[in-house]
Design goal:
Shape: globular
Helix content: 40-55%
Radius of gyration: 23 Å
Number of helices: 20
Structural class: mainly alpha
Strand order of the largest sheet: 1-2
Mean pLDDT: 85
Low-confidence stretches: 126-139, 269-273
Number of strands: 2
Distance between the termini: 32 Å
Order of helices and strands: HHHHHHHHHHHHHHHHEEHHHH
Length: 379
């Protein structure tokens, strides 16, 4: 069960008419122990809690922050303090997903269920919206049977790559005449306008608008924001419209190894001795001041740390190809933390359509994903 479903089943039963954003915050406050009183739960804006409840935004980020403070016994007490009628109604609402829940074990069962939702969310790296476009279903119904059939054939042929479908729009916009490494992008380029739109609509993906010269404009805005958030120092390597970043397309077939995806200092959750993780987590912890200084990390801006540790300024050690990988991973993941601290759009208004870093296999995918994330926060 997704968190927003959990909230919307529980809210009518036990909220007592409380504002939904405050109700969501209350749920988190009652599932952590006292040691976390000054953590992110109380610092998070109510608008963010509203977006958690609506499903417009996942709880992945906050789940990672509170995971080490989870205390099922606290939530059990919260449920035990409810009235008998409220606990009975909880049993009715959740009996279809929580086996053998009854008025005697409801506190324990629901607490464990809620904690499991948080732990599962803490493992996720991507952000998906529950409903990215309320008009998509209606638009899909208006398509002709011929268009639906052509789009269906494309979707079936590339079903295993469905999590990459949104990248097709970026690939087409950049070069509709290109023969790509990934056959799916080439097949999409060969479709006519109406079929391309039908593919996106039937896949419940918004059809994107692209400005002229959008890549250089968005990289300039990105450089401004990583400076503002102190994610980089003087050597951000994205100057001249990101020429080293764009070098990715000189090596489209290059496989992205896990050692590049997960090579960054991370906070140790629940005494986990694994000290490396996704760059997004490192960036997020840096901005929120929760990085663990015992990891040999001395507080450098993350991009400066990467430049030093991966010898990104030394062409003899870090090749042009490797530099392009690091810069694309940085852009891809930094967009997530920029959206959480954005001064133009509300975080809940930013919808990320690109795949998570786990699903990216080759340089071509990584480059289009990084560009799509830039489009998500600056368009």
């Amino acid at each position: 069960m997704e968190f927003y479903e959990f909230v919307n089943r529980l809210y009518p039963v036990i909220s007592g008419g409380k504002n939904k954003a405050l109700f969501v915050q209350d749920l988190f406050l009652n599932v952590i122990n006292e040691a976390s009183e000054d953590n992110i739960v109380e610092k998070t804006q109510l608008s963010t809690y509203r977006s958690y409840a609506s499903g417009e935004r996942t709880i992945n980020r906050i789940a990672r922050k509170i995971r080490e403070y989870l205390e099922p016994a606290c939530f059990e007490k919260y449920i035990d303090d409810l009235s008998d009628e409220q606990r009975e109604n909880i049993c009715s609402e959740f009996s279809y997903v929580i086996k053998e829940i009854d008025e005697y074990n409801v506190a324990e069962k629901l607490s464990r269920f809620f904690v499991d939702i948080i732990i599962e969310a803490s493992k996720q790296t991507g952000r998906k919206a529950k409903n990215i476009n309320n008009d998509i279903d209606e638009e899909s119904d208006s398509l002709s049977e011929e268009l639906k059939d052509k789009a269906r054939r494309f979707i079936i042929d590339h079903e295993s790559e469905k999590n990459l479908f949104a990248l097709c729009q970026v690939a087409f916009n950049l070069n509709p005449m290109h023969n790509h490494v990934r056959d799916m992008y080439t097949a999409y380029n060969k479709c006519d306008y109406d079929v391309r739109n039908a593919i996106m609509r039937m896949s419940e993906i918004p059809i994107l608008d692209f400005e002229n010269e959008w890549t250089s404009k968005y990289i300039e805005l990105f450089c401004r924001d990583i400076k503002r958030l102190k994610l980089c120092g003087d050597s951000n390597l994205l100057y001249d419209s990101g020429k080293y970043f764009h070098n990715a397309m000189k090596y489209p077939k290059e496989t992205i190894p896990d050692s590049c995806k997960y090579s960054f200092p991370t906070y140790i959750l629940n005494h986990n001795t694994d000290r490396e993780g996704a760059l997004y987590i490192f960036l997020d912890e840096y901005i929120n001041g929760s990085y663990n200084l015992t990891l040999g990390y001395e507080g450098q801006p993350p991009l400066e740390w990467m430049i030093t540790n991966f010898n990104m300024l030394n062409a003899d050690v870090c090749s042009e190809k490797q530099l392009a990988i690091w810069l694309n991973i940085f852009v891809h993941d930094a967009c997530y933390v920029i959206s959480s601290n954005y001064n133009r759009k509300k975080p809940e208004d930013v919808i990320f359509l690109s795949p998570s870093i786990d699903d990216i296999e080759i340089m071509e995918d990584l480059y289009y994903s990084a560009l799509l994330n830039l489009h998500s926060i600056y368009s």
